[in-house]
Amino acid sequence: MYIIRLIYKNAFRHKLRTSLTILGITIVILAFSLLRTVVSAWYAGVEASSATRLVTRNSISLVFPLPISYKDKIRQIHGVKFVSYAYWFGGIYIDEKNFFANFAVEPKSFLELYPEYILPPDQKGVFLRDRKTAIAGQKLAAKYHWKIGDTITLKGTIFPGNWEFVLRGIYQGRDKSTDETQFFFHWDYLNEALKKTAPLRADQAGFYLIGVNNPDLAEEVAVAIDKTFKNSLAETLTETEKAFQLSFVSMSEAIVIAIQLVSFVVIIIIMAVMANTMAMTARERIGEYAILKTLGFGGWHIAAFIFGESLLIAMVGCTAGIVFTFPIAKAFGNAMETYFPVFNVATKTIYLAIAASFLVGIVASIIPTWRAITIRIADGLRRIG
Amino acid sequence: MEQRVLIVEIKNLNKSYRRGNQTIPVLENITFDIEEGEFLALMGPSGSGKSTLLNLIAGIDKSDSGIIKVHGVDITVLTETELARWRSANVGFIFQFYNLIPVLTAFENVELPLLLTWLSRRERREHVETALRVVNLSDYMDYYPGQLSGGQQQRVAIARALVTDPTIIVADEPTGDLDRVSAKEILELMGRLNTEFGKTIIMVTHDPHAAEKARTIKHLEKGILNVHNQAHL
């Protein structure tokens, strides 16, 4: 207790210097946690993907659709449990800045395939029955103050025209990683309209979503699907949902790597700042360490004082940084919801922040401790007075 | 006839410092003994080696050659760790600039050496209170060094030096930073420790008035001990 008290008193001997150091660590931990959360948010789609789901798209590009007739052939392949299909609609709500993902889906099979989108049974029933209806994630509905029964008009970009939908369901995410900012409506609704306005584009799907019985069969099923459509007019590329999501992330991989690097660079910077603080502290107290050694305190005691002080400062800064991370991440997530639908501070990020702070505290005190331990008592005492 | 007990035995002690390529001898072939209950003043001009000799006796510096036995233990052969343990049990230190830890109260400063013992918290408190009572600072135990005068701080340092009941007390210019009145008080207190409590004290000073309080004075001149000791009783 005595040693802890002495460490505490020493740490706050120079209140301004210690406060500024703590503030620096707080800001760095906050920045580190936010940057790590941005990286996690980037991979949120990958994290949310299921091992039992496959995505089949046109092997040339996602831009090219696949015939709707593939649905029945895919269903016949061994290991396939569900087949659904969807189209990226790319509609704009009022203004281009109001971006959110909107898909035309085959609702029954889609909701079977994605049990993480939880809809109240009554809303689900209405949605499945009426092809002019749509559902939205609760974050998206909250953002635009939508409520059940509202008519939502999207301006088509890929499919020109104004498209009206009646909101009949607001889904909640089962998991923290579930995206609650999406908008789904009936593929039939789109297809019927296309039959009238652009018949050549009708009866097609942007991609197929396939549920398999067993994750171990995923690879085998993927190969079988692509083999089925080999040498057809629209050859397919089937991959796991995770690989499909990763292919989007990989487009911006350089940015992600840069963010990760910056998150570690800020730790190295604060390590240098902290080391400087501890070096100044130890240099000022070298006489006191000599006195302690004179009184019989050994190197381990001196090390405990310096390491303890350094760790105390680092961990106070870390705690403050973590405490501030949550509200700031929430505000950041709300502001950036369009780009990061899922923006949650992961437990792993907190552990990393704690580990980084611990490392800063340890590294910063190595050289000062070595100096304090190795200085001759007589030389140390000479620095006093 | 009263039996003479030697507490410190020094034989052929040599110490030199290196400055670049030069070796500068500080102590040359020093041999003398100190009896138990002695109050010895080591005098000499600056650079004569008196503080170096005190540091060697106290085990905070290493000699080049020779033997220093304190209470029968040759401290020249002890390792750093053994010396640290030995110092904590056998030596009480009084410095010119008091050398108290500024963030600790008078009580905590005196308690510091006791942390290295197996005493319980209650026992430590009893020892500290006794030591502070001896130096007449019972009412100041919760004061920080910055709240005390120079004389009071030196009395706290003396309490810290005697709280472990050491074999010897070493004092390096204990009145060097004090005014005359405070210096007199400190010397009287050290005299009491010697006469009333039988403590063996080795004091380095260049102040003849301070040296007068000692029973024996030894002079060092350029690292050589003056053989003409002057006894004061």
Fill in the keyword field for this structure.
heterodimer, A: 385 residues, alpha+beta, eleven-stranded mixed β-sheet, two-stranded antiparallel sheet, 56% helix, 17% strand, elongated, B: 233 residues, alpha/beta, seven-stranded mixed β-sheet, 7 helices, 11 strands, 32% helix
What's the Cα radius of gyration of chain A? 29 Å
How far apart lie the N and C ends of chain B? Answer: 19 Å
What is the element string of chain B, with H for helices and E for strands? EEEHEEHEHHHEHEHEEE
Average pLDDT number of chain A: 92
Q: Helix tally of chain A?
A: 15
The count of β-strands of chain A is: 13
Average residue-wise pLDDT of chain B: 89
Summarize the structure in words.
The complex is a heterodimer of chains A (385) and B (233). Chain A has 385 residues and is an alpha+beta fold. In chain A, 56% of the residues lie in helices and 17% in strands. Chain A has 15 helices and 13 strands. Chain A has helices at 2-11, 15-42, 44-48, 70-75, 107-113, 121-129, 138-143, 187-197, 218-228, 241-251, 253-284, 286-294, 299-335, 347-374, 377-382; strands at residues 53-58, 66-67, 80-88, 92-93, 102-105, 117-118, 133-137, 151-156, 161-173, 183-186, 204-205, 207-212, 236-240. In chain A, the strands form 2 sheets. In chain A, strands 1, 3, 4, 5, 6, 7, 8, 9, 10, 12 and 13 form an 11-stranded mixed β-sheet that branches. A two-stranded antiparallel sheet of chain A has the order 2-11. In chain A, α2 (15-42) crosses α13 and α2 (15-42) runs antiparallel to α14 (347-374). The radius of gyration of chain A is 29 Å and the shape is elongated. In chain A, 39% of the residues are buried. Chain B is α/β, with parallel strands linked by helices and 233 residues long. Chain B is built from 7 helices and 11 strands. Chain B has helices at residues 50-58, 80-90, 106-111, 121-134, 150-162, 180-195, 208-212, and strands at 6-19, 22-35, 39-43, 65-70, 73-74, 91-94, 168-172, 200-204, 216-221, 224-225, 230-231. In chain B, a hairpin with a 2-residue loop joins β4 and β5 (73-74). In chain B, α4 packs across α5 and α5 (150-162) runs parallel beside α6. Chain B starts with 5 loop residues before the first strand and ends with a strand. Mean pLDDT of chain B is 89; it is low at 227-233. The A-B interface holds A 2-3, 6, 9-10, 13, 287-288, 291-298, 376-378, 381, 384-385 and B 52, 55, 58, 60-61, 81, 84-85, 87-89, 93, 95-97, 99, 101-104, 108, 111-113, 115-116, 160, 177.
